[in-house]
Amino acid sequence: MPPGTRTGLRILGLDPGSRATGYGVIDLVGHKLVFVACGVVRPPAEAAFAERLRRIHDGLVQVIAEHTPDEAAVEDVFVAANPRSALKLGHARGVAMIAAMGRELAVHEYGPRQIKQAVVGYGLAGKEQMQRMVRLLLSLAALPSQDAADALAVAICHAHHGGRLPPARTAGLACGRAAP
Predict the structure, then answer these.
(1) What average pLDDT does this structure show over 138-146?
(2) Quick check: 21 and 14 in contact, CB under 8 A?
């Protein structure tokens, strides 16, 4: 659907990684989150690092062209035990951000705890808990993969922290109570 014909805000969430970069697209219509798409850009494992980065970039450019988001949100780098892994993750994040910014999207960054807090209501939530909550919040028929769920969680976090959803909306859901 062309950007001018839909109602609401379309958000692209990105969970970067050099082996798998998750993406999730949601629409925020009023105070309602609507699932659009999700998936994983997975370059060939045997490809050289630079080639994997190019494939991630090209895959995200294709996702952006297909779903025409209005804004993007990216998970911020967490502190990794292995400096080499952290550096590779930083490269993948940079590629994801350039793919979005190259299409004139504003890019917002959120830390892992902030994302978990926005989605589950607990900053130390586990991956499975995040997957289940993403499924619940977006009324999905099945659990998305962990990479796709993480990306959808980034988009959901942006919907909240961008000041577009009232805080009580997810706080009630995250604790198992009905939202007002």
Answers:
(1) 95
(2) yes
